[in-house]
Amino acid sequence: MKKFLMAIVAVLFAAPSFAQMGSGGFTLSESTVYYGIRMGLNVSTITGDLVDADSKAGMTLGGVIGLRVSDTTPIFVESGLYYSGRGAKDFNLNYLEIPVLIKYGIEATDDIAVLPYIGPYFSYGIGGKYKDPTGKHSSYNCVKHPDMGFKLGCGVEYNKLYAELGYQFGVMNIAQDDATYNPSDESCHTGNFFINVGVNF
Known about the structure:
The protein is mostly beta strands. The chain has a single domain, classed as Porin, CATH 2.40.160. It is built from two helices and eleven strands. The strands form two sheets. It has an eight-stranded antiparallel barrel with strand order 1-2-3-4-6-9-10-11. β3 and β4 form a beta hairpin. The longest helix is centred in the first third of the chain and has 12 residues, at 2-13. The model is unreliable at 11-25 (pLDDT under 50).
């Protein structure tokens, strides 16, 4: 985690250099496609019957592609592929995630655009462990691999630099249906605050 936080600090200190590279990954006044990279920090929880634990910090890393879909208003659709570390304290869940976000661009100044957004996400678990008095075990023995929900947040772009803050909440019950791991038909859902930084091209 220390190395990851140092990487975020390095990106922030590199901001003046990125800012000199051009006028941004897209402009609000014309149709365009943009690409970007993202890295950031998650603070996630699992709510429900199976897990009763505090939140945990994790990382996210991904790439995005966006497209303006209207000639008259600055509306964009953005998708991509993320690695996302979520879960709860002593209960780690690692996901590959694909969001489909609707963004609306607001020109705050000549150099700064504000982009509130909302949309669904679809994710699939690729690993994770939980710890109990008997040791460490696979998290996916007691929760399902697929998950889905909604993300909402707001991004800010300055030249090529991008930062965002948001929340995502799962609407799918990820508790296993198997009687061995979930004998009383309990339920649980994921939730996650996130902050990301990155660059648009």
